[in-house]
Amino acid sequence: MEYLRPRRAAKRLQLLGLSAIVTVVLVLTAAPAFAGQGFSVSGTAFLDTDGDGVLDPGEAGIAGVTVQFDDDTDGIVDSTQLTDVSGNYTEGPFFALVRVRAVAPAGMVQTSANPADIGGPTGTVNFGFGPATAISVPTLDAWGIGALILLCAALAVRHLHRAALARR
Q: 116, 120, 41: which is closest to 81 by C-alpha?
């Protein structure tokens, strides 16, 4: 049975039409053994200059990155933290598995892999980000367009010629 924080449990039970009294019983009976202690998760969002997804010496932290926490791994974000001026964050306590994800800042992509769910006693999750590479789209100048039209015309003539030969 999964552990639910009281607010989350009450919300789910209200959807089922059950009373809040049942919530207290559910929380007390479903808590894992380390629930009294809890654990925290911390880490750094950083500018990954070499793109390897690993926080290396000299790679600067990124302030204002949103870090999301799903404290019962059900796919619903339960809390968020913004990284501080050094790119650091800390959140907790958690009393069951927690899924940690980061939202890439505008114009950047995540270079580090998403971590596995964390179950305590403590967790460190760093998120690397690098610049999003622009997708270059080739452009055709007047000569390129002319060459493309000429190629299409040649293919059409070839097709018509083969069709005429096939009819004979």
A: 41
pLDDT in tens, the chain (168 residues): 444 455 555 555 455 554 444 333 333 334 444 556 788 899 999 999 999 999 999 999 999 999 999 988 889 999 999 999 999 999 988 888 899 999 999 999 999 999 888 887 778 899 999 998 755 455 556 666 776 777 777 788 887 878 788 887
The 8-class DSSP code of residue 144 comes to H
Instruction: Classify strands 88-94 and 39-47 as parallel, antiparallel or unpaired.
Output: antiparallel
DSSP state of 105: P
Contact (CB, 8 A) for 132 and 150: no
pTM of whole model > 0.70? no
Any alpha helices (H) in 17-131, and if so which ranges? 20-30
Helix-helix angle 6-16:20-30, to 10 degrees: 130
The DSSP line for 18-40 is --HHHHHHHHHHH--TTTTT-EE
- 103 with 65: CB under 8 angstroms? yes
